[in-house]
Amino acid sequence: MFKEIIFTSSYSSQIGSFLALKESQNDRDMNNLKQNHILVVHINTKNDLKCKYSFYNKYSILLNKAGNKFFILKINNFLKRLFLYFAIYFLNVFFKNKVKVWEPRPEWINSLFITKFIKLPRILQNKKTNYYGDGFLCLSRSNPFWLNDKKFKAGYKINLLSKFYYHIDVEQFSFKEQYLNNHFEIKSSKIIRFLNEIIDFDDIKLNRKYISKYLKNKSSLVIFPLTTFTETRRATFNDEIRLYLDYFSKNINPSKNLVIIKSHPNSSFKKINSLYIGLKKLKYNVILPKQFEEILNLGIPLEIIPMELLCLKVHKLFNIAYQNITIPITSNVTLSTLKIFPKIKYIKPFGKLLISKYIKKEYINKRLKQENIISNKLKKLYV
Questions:
Q1: What's the CA gap between 198 and 71, in Å, rounded?
Q2: What value, to the nearest 5°, has the Cα angle with vertex 320 and ends 318 and 323?
Q3: CA–CA separation, 349 vs 330, rounded Å?
């Protein structure tokens, strides 16, 4: 019987859940361990429909020494998802308090069974749960406010015994002070240590001269993470591309910087290619994601690897100083990365002028509020 079930999806989410699990087991007595069977339920994403990229499948050995034994269930089609619904129902009825459940945020599991064509009844209600945050350990008590008007779906309550594990907090309203005993911040030092374990485990051998030819006469490496403005219908495709090009023209010197496009897991190749062509016309030196995957020998698509791990790999494998890496503040991931690596340089967010020009009216204030929260958090990091 499984003692814990971890529900996860993207590669960033998988690493985040792994770190949260590791944090929760820090106080275990290593001399008196019983085998802990853990089921990892890997939900497919738009860019990994077959659940091909499983972090647990490759790296679970890094936690096996703590008495853990992992089993991976890949949910990569509708029938498997339907089976999952009834399996969760069965476990919840007959083993309600015997199995520890992990999910990114409240209602995430329930949301798996809501589509345009079908809406199954809530399967979990007010259950004691461990939450490890959206994306890479971003504290979340509900859907992100910049995407969703409602704080919680009607009728859903968070069990007061639930625990939240996180690295960054960009919540509009913070509850940490009210519930200090069930909010656990994972320190940057622990994350760096674990990311180094991943790199050491891979034992990648590279020709560092290969990247140096790209960096020749360039003072900085700019890693530009794309957003999901188009995918979340906050902007049209063309306006999102124009936003990026306008931002580059105003903030990034083409003669001094090498640019790597870090696409979002849900970004299309069309978006990446359109931005690449636009930047080349503006005389920027740009590396396509596929090129950089080959240079860095990633083994997984660039859009899937977390920004935090990517920056460490660039620094460690190519001997590029953190001070020579620059990332624009385009999303929460930049805050997380800068919190872990404060020596990395950053460029200000898009700002009111560009957001008002290219983002749909109903999302302007939400986006600006998000940027303001991230900027204020960054100020505290550099005090």
A1: 20
A2: 165
A3: 6
